[in-house]
Design goal:
- The chain has three domains: about 300 residues, 3-Layer(aba) Sandwich (Beta-lactamase), CATH 3.40.710; about 140 residues, Transcription Regulator spoIIAA, CATH 3.30.750.24; about 150 residues, Sandwich (Jelly Rolls), CATH 2.60.120.10.
- It is of the alpha+beta class.
- The longest helix is centred in the last third of the chain and has 31 residues.
- It is elongated and about 110 Å long.
- Strands 9, 14, 15, 16, 17, 18 and 19 form a seven-stranded mixed sheet that branches. A five-stranded antiparallel sheet has the order 2-1-7-6-5. A five-stranded mixed sheet has the order 8-10-11-12-13, sandwiched between helices.
- Helices cover about 40% and strands about 20% of the residues.
- It comes from Cyanobium gracile UHCC 0281.
- It holds the Pfam family Glutaminase.
């Protein structure tokens, strides 16, 4: 079974134990408005369909985010009938090819009833896959592709689409088979034109079976949402159809899905849809949601009266028509600011800060959001071109990009390569939505650095600036001689005090991965970094309920850490881990207490220096927090 949904996902998002939901309330209003409609007649040309209750009525909306809203008879089974047609055509495309299917079935609206014998006079091809002739031709190709296993193949496929195992209503199947003389005539005509290349009876049998698959309104909404998500089932995560096939199927649903009412439907409602004579209507808002209704009474076109009314009202009332979409001006750029307005969590020495200060605005940080389709990339490219003359390092943060379609991703690759050719260093952070790995043709992949976190990219940008503008000769550790006398904190002490303090400190070595401090340890030691790199890490619980280790700060040569717990004599509140091999001078509390007795003036000088250091860190932290509210 493929149904991986939690029970809560199967329930309406409104009830006695939930707060009111406006979407659920909307469905309630639609249900109340159209329940009393008595127009239309239940289909009776198939005896079993005539048994349907005309009062049955259900509405379901399934979103691309995996949420369900439903009301009415949404779990009552009925047969899928012609709503199977877009899915059957999609399966034939998946098993065979676009070119092959084009040789068998056209894609032009017929303007005729669903059961019309609508074949091209010369080629014999059905006008489109949404009428009976086209659906029978598509079933024939599936049958020929797997003669002995076509039914199992069909049911396995519909299981992926609906997220649960579906079955065939044997009574309806037999009723359709026994009375389907017109469809049988269509099948033999197709054989006459060699559209069906073998005995048409197995194909007709498969067609009657597919129309008799039992579904609920809920099932149809999930299937519609799968089409809305470019062939990915948002409830199971499965991918029964590739995106290029769903694009073609939705186009056909838009132009042919409602038979000879299709043109009026597209004009009035503007949503790709498909109806079935058992009373189902399925509509798709690409990228957003699927809609399904169930109500057996049909109009003269064979479409559910209540289903058409619900879709029409949704289109007009809440703006779901594809032709009534608002522009998203500049929505792609979430935030854009200069490097001076956000610093990394790596604490820099005074010398490094002096070097960085006049050059920070050579870095630009741009946060991108939404779908990077043609329109999104056009907005981003315009911003990049506007800034290119003033930027030496560009950080693109892509955490809020929801998708980068393959069709348009090449444009982004070209834009980034063009900037890189002009000398702009490009750093990508949180690029999980971009097809960097799956797109071997991307030139930029081998030319830029990618970072899991934005802070890592900011640190790399600062390091790049230092490599360009730091003209001071570096020692073997990359930051001067590493002598304790050169340590920024100790430079605030006079030479005599510094010498006395140094004699009380020990040099301790660490390898990458060592825990220098663990959360809960007593605050008995003060660390001054001689070489290497040390991170403060804290476990933070995020909105998904999981704990993630987060870097609060990084300390390198010339900086100190552990001072707050040391001065306040409180337990450690975070872990400190060596990320690169290095050494620290360590002052233990016992030595500090001994100095307090023997050289109180040294201790006072040290405490003054630590107070200044803590104050500077708090000041920078406050500025960064304030800036983050705006950027």
């Amino acid at each position: 079974m493929l149904d991986h949904r939690h029970d809560d996902a199967l329930l309406p998002l409104h009830g006695p134990d939930r707060h009111p939901n406006v979407i659920q309330e909307l469905l309630g209003e639609l249900y109340a408005s159209f329940s009393s409609v008595r127009e239309g007649r239940v289909a009776d040309y198939i005896p079993e369909l005539a048994k349907a209750c005309p009062d049955d009525f259900g509405i379901v909306i399934a979103t691309s985010g995996g949420r369900i809203y439903e009301i009415g008879d949404t779990r009552k089974e009925f047969t899928i009938q012609s709503i199977s047609k877009p899915f059957i055509y999609a399966l034939a495309l998946k098993l065979l090819s676009f070119d092959f299917m084009a040789s068998k079935i056209d894609v032009e609206p017929s303007g005729e009833a669903f059961n019309a014998i609508s074949l091209d006079s010369e080629s014999g091809k059905p006008r489109n896959p949404m009428i009976n002739a086209g659906a029978i031709a598509a079933s024939a190709q599936i049958c020929d592709a797997d003669p002995s296993g076509a039914v199992d193949l069909l049911l396995d496929y519909f299981e992926e689409l609906a997220g649960r195992r579906l079955t065939i209503n044997e009574d309806v199947y037999l009723s359709e088979k026994q009375t389907g003389h017109r469809n049988r005539a269509i099948g033999h005509l197709l054989r006459n034109f060699n559209i069906i290349e073998s005995d048409p009876e197995p194909a007709l049998d498969l067609y009657f079976r597919q129309c008799a698959i039992s579904v609920t309104c809920h099932d149809l909404a999930v299937m519609a949402a799968t089409l809305a998500c470019q062939g990915r089932n948002p409830f199971t995560g499965g991918q029964p159809l590739p995106h290029d096939i769903t694009v073609r199927v939705l186009a056909l649903m838009g132009t042919c899905g409602m038979y000879d009412f299709a043109g009026q439907w597209l004009h009035d409602v503007g949503i790709p849809a498909k109806s079935g004579v058992a009373g189902g209507v399925m509509a798709v808002i690409p990228g957003r949601l699927g809609i399904a209704t169930y109500s057996p009474p049909l109009d003269n076109f064979g479409n559910s009266v209540r289903g058409v009314a619900v879709c029409r009202q949704l289109s007009a009332g809440v703006g779901l028509s594809l032709f009534n979409q608002y522009s998203h001006t500049d929505a792609t750029i979430r935030r854009s600011y200069q490097g001076s307005q956000r610093k990394s969590r790596r604490w820099r020495s005074d010398r490094e800060l002096q070097i960085l200060a006049p050059h920070r605005d050579e870095v630009r940080i741009i946060h991108v959001q939404g779908v990077l389709d043609f329109g999104g990339i056009e907005q981003l490219a315009a911003e990049l071109v506007r800034l290119s003359n003033d930027v030496r390092i560009l950080i693109l943060d892509l955490a809020h990009v929801t998708e980068c379609p393959l069709e348009s991703s090449g444009l982004l690759d070209r834009q980034l390569c063009s900037m890189e050719d002009e000398g702009v260093e490009i750093l990508l952070s949180r690029a999980g939505r971009l097809p960097l790995v799956s797109m071997p043709d991307w030139r930029i992949t081998d030319r830029v650095s990618t970072y899991e976190h934005l802070d890592s990219a900011l640190e790399a940008a600062e390091d790049q600036l230092l490599s360009w503008y730091d003209t001071v000769a570096e020692g073997p550790n990359g930051h001067g001689s590493g002598a304790i006398e050169a340590h920024g904190l100790l430079q605030q002490l006079c030479g005599e005090h510094r010498q006395i303090l140094v004699e009380q400190m020990s040099l301790r070595a660490f390898i990458a991965g060592d825990f220098v401090i663990r959360r809960g340890d007593p605050g008995d030691e003060l660390f001054l970094v001689r070489s290497g790199s040390f991170d403060i890490a804290l476990d933070v619980k995020t909105g998904d309920g999981h704990s993630h280790s987060t870097r609060l700060a990084t300390f390198g040569p010339g900086l100190c850490f552990g001072e707050i717990g040391f001065v306040a004599q409180t337990p450690r509140t975070a872990d400190i881990i060596a990320t690169k091999p290095g050494e620290c001078w360590v002052l233990h509390r016992n030595a500090f207490e001994a100095l307090s007795a023997s050289h109180p003036d040294v201790v006072i000088a040290l405490l003054k220096a630590l107070t200044c250091d803590i104050g500077a860190k708090l000041s920078q932290t406050s500025v960064q927090l304030t800036l983050m509210e705006h950027y």
